[in-house]
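Colleagues,

Please find the record for the two-part complex below.
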Amino acid sequence: NAGVMQNPRHLVRRRGQEARLRCSPMKGHSHVYWYRQLPEEGLKFMVYLQKENIIDESGMPKERFSAEFPKEGPSILRIQQVVRGDSAAYFCASSPIRPGNTEAFFGQGTRLTVV
Amino acid sequence: AQKVTQAQTEISVVEKEDVTLDCVYETRDTTYYLFWYKQPPSGELVFLIRRNSFDEQNEISGRYSWNFQKSTSSFNFTITASQVVDSAVYFCALSGTPYFGNEKLTFGTGTRLTIIP
């Protein structure tokens, strides 16, 4: 009964490179949320996806960031042309179909460092 | 807009003392959920509790207890007889009435708790 799986756990990228963060939700969960935690700060919502649909991307930066949750495979958060300010921990959470009854299970996070 | 305020940035107590972490929230939703999470030094997020807005009963789980007061929009967390393993950053969070299943969380800025042996 695996939990939410994120990989890689740690990712180092040079400025200008692309970062791809993967999230496999818990079995039976079809909702995925991405959050960003800047150093010494709380988590901030980025995007909410269901299979093949972006439902709410109100927290996503307008440029360079994109997210997808294909019919098959993990959800991907993609950051193009990374900058130092993108260095943060990125957490994924998943929840089951029934709304209003979730504990929002979190993965262990991906720590992105931009050098 | 939703907002969660954790006014205590850092707290240090000596082991075995009791400690209360404060959380005040703002929301216009009539149905909402409140959460507490623990983030130990290893960095993962550990779910502690979820409370819905219709249930104002206080809850106790071992050394942990939660006091939900709708009248003051507060959801405080108390650790009794603290232990060194309780040292972590604790986050309070809020989710509103879900639209299309959207239960995104609004987090407070966290309280760093240090238990001194």
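Chain A is about 0% helix and 50% strand.

Comments are welcome before we finalize the supplementary table.
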